[in-house]
Amino acid sequence: MKLRSSLRTAAAGGLLLATLGAGAGSASAADKDGWLTSGEFGLFCYANQQNSVLDLNVSDSNFADDFFKGSQSCAYQLTNDWTESYSNRDVYSWSIHTDWKGSGYGATIAAGARGNTSATFTNSISSAYFN
User: Fold this and answer.
1) What contacts 57, CB < 8 A, 6 or more positions away?
2) Of 98, 82, 100, 78, the residue nearest 32 (C-alpha)
3) Residues 6 or more apart from 113 whose CB is under 8 A from it?
4) Per-residue pLDDT at 28
5) Which of the two residues, 103 and 14, has the higher pLDDT score?
6) How wide is the angle at C-alpha 47 spanned by C-alphas 45 and 51, nearest 5°?
7) 45's torsion region: left (phi>0), alpha (psi -120 to 50) or beta?
8) What's the half-sphere exposure (Cβ side, CA atoms, 13 Å) at 106?
9) Residue 26 to residue 38: CA distance in whole angstroms
């Protein structure tokens, strides 16, 4: 009887830890999952934050191997040199660049800002860094 009670207590503790662990993971932003959430910087393939998104929560020096995610028409399209708008849901500003590794033309996007890219950056962004 004592063993059975101990096993039940251990099982209940394990269930509690599993529940807490599952809940903790959902509170943080998941990089490049196709969902722009709080704490992330997003680049969209169409103007006005439309269609699929590349959502970043860490800097990316080379978009050549990144794809838009989601169920929209841009999904699975390479992100490099194909962006028309942005939304910064991070508390940090981000810098965008027309070439890899922060080269080329650059601009800073303030925390909370959203809009369409200028002619210099439309379909030309290749890297992004949080500041």
Assistant:
1) 29, 30, 31, 39, 40, 41, 90
2) 78
3) 86, 87, 88
4) 60
5) 103
6) 45
7) alpha
8) 15
9) 12
